[in-house]
């Protein structure tokens, strides 16, 4: 009887999207345009993400386990940390591409940039209200929505805490299943901790692939919680342990930069120009000054450098 009434109501609305939204708001099975390519994600991570063994393993395991669970007990919440140009945004686009078939073009992938969406620290109350309604409205339309929050180091503290009820082990809030959503936070906060561990490992002759996530995750959590420039400053999301995994991104070596350059060249049909890739690697600035191990900008400047040498 309920289904018949719903069908009559939806028919009167006259649009498939509204019908889908109503169905999704009461159903655990609505998948929107959800069409995950698990093998494609795993291959993309290992083929195109350079120098990030921890990110490859953590993201692959977390996303695959979450997607394969038809009845997760809470949303998947990933917090990506590291210096600029190390692959954080690349990973978020990979997740979107292999879940909805497009990096950012799906109506079910939502990206927030603090300098654009939350620019003023004086309007936290308004931002909280806007964000809460935006997330709930989109989850009503699609329980499998993906929310990406970039540049969390520029997010006014207090705004993101409005999402605390959405990130916990709640089955239904406001008649909507919130447990199938994915939240991705991207931040440079914590890079000092990550870079220090990478440097100490290098100086000790330890292979970077031997660095374990357990060595960094607690320190990253402390860094984002105590940093006044972090959107998670004194956030209950941290104290209530609502982040599924903190994902460290290590600083990149010259060989990683050259692989980024080689990929860029191949995308331009110039795969054979190994000389250009080598020149790009040599043109980067490396730190620390006395040993020149890590690219100070990761792979961020690679496209511009390729233009220069090609």
From TrEMBL:
The keyword Signal applies. Residues 255-307 form the Torsin-1A C-terminal domain. One of its GO terms (cellular component) is endoplasmic reticulum lumen. Keywords: ATP-binding, Endoplasmic reticulum, Glycoprotein, Nucleotide-binding, Signal. It comes from the Eukaryota. Pfam families: TOR1A_C (PF21376), Torsin (PF06309). GO terms for molecular function: ATP binding; ATP hydrolysis activity. Belongs to the ClpA/ClpB family. Torsin subfamily. This is Torsin. It comes from Cirrhinus molitorella. The lineage of its organism: Eukaryota, Metazoa, Chordata, Craniata, Vertebrata.
């Amino acid at each position: 009887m309920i289904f018949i009434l719903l069908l009559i109501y939806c028919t009167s609305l006259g649009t498939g999207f509204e019908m889908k939204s109503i169905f999704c708001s009461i159903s655990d099975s609505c998948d929107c345009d959800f069409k995950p390519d698990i093998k494609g994600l795993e291959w993309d991570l290992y083929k195109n993400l350079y120098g990030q063994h921890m990110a490859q393993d953590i993201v692959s395991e977390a996303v695959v386990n979450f997607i394969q669970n038809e009845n997760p007990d809470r949303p998947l919440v990933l917090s990506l940390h590291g210096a600029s140009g190390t692959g954080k945004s690349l990973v978020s686009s990979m997740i979107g591409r292999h879940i909805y078939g497009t990096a950012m073009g799906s109506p079910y992938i939502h990206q927030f940039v603090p300098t654009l969406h939350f620019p003023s620290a004086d309007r936290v109350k308004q931002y909280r209200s806007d964000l809460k309604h935006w997330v709930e409205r989109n989850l009503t339309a699609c329980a499998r929505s993906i929310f990406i929050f970039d540049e969390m180091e520029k997010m006014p503290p207090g705004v993101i805490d409005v999402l605390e009820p959405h990130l916990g082990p709640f089955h239904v809030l406001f008649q909507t299943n919130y447990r199938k959503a994915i939240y991705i936070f991207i931040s440079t906060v914590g890079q000092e901790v990550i870079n220090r561990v990478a440097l100490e490992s290098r100086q000790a002759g330890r292979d970077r692939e031997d660095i374990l996530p357990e060595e960094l995750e607690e320190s990253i959590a402390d860094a984002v919680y105590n940093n006044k420039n972090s959107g998670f400053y004194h956030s209950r999301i941290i104290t209530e342990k609502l982040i599924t995994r903190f994902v460290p991104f290590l600083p990149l070596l010259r060989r990683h930069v050259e692989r980024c350059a080689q990929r860029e060249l191949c995308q331009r049909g110039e795969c054979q120009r190994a000389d250009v890739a080598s020149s790009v690697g040599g043109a980067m600035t490396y730190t620390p000054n006395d040993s020149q191990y890590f690219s100070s900008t990761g792979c961020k400047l690679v496209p511009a450098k390729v233009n220069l040498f090609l």
